[in-house]
Amino acid sequence: MTAKKKRKKPKFNQNSAVRSSIRRVFSRSPHVIDTLKKARRERPWHRQDGTVAKRPRVEYICSNCNEWFMGKDVQVDHTIPVIDPVKGFETWDTFVDRVFCAIENLTVLCKPCHKIKTDEEKAIRAIHRKKAKLALKE
User: Fold this and answer.
1) Helices (H), the chain
2) Taking 90 as the threshold, does the pLDDT of residue 106 lie above it?
3) Predicted model pTM
4) Given the DSSP bridges, would you call strands 74-78 and 40-43 parallel, antiparallel or unpaired?
5) Contact predicate 89/83, CB 8 Å
6) Confidence band (pLDDT; 50, 70, 90) for 112?
């Protein structure tokens, strides 16, 4: 039998803590709530014994694949990314301005669609980061 290795606790990262705090506050903002309300529908649902439940089932439509998902399976996405894929992180002022954007810049995506979009943005950012490093070496 092999013993499990104990994970090392990562060092405290101040920038990461501030970034996640800003995003957490944003998730409770009126813009996010309004965006979710626009993509919402309620349907009655039945219990196993056939009776109608008191509360309706709440679902949200993904703006990319146009399928309906439960609330735990959707995320509010910024159409224009908060972190610019080409430039990367700029300043805290631009970060906050882009997080707390106009409601027209927000859409509801299911988690799979959101992951695909985010991964594409990360790949673009990685390419530009490599180019910047190579330019610095030259």
Assistant:
1) 14-27, 30-38, 92-99, 111-137
2) yes
3) 0.80
4) unpaired
5) yes
6) very high
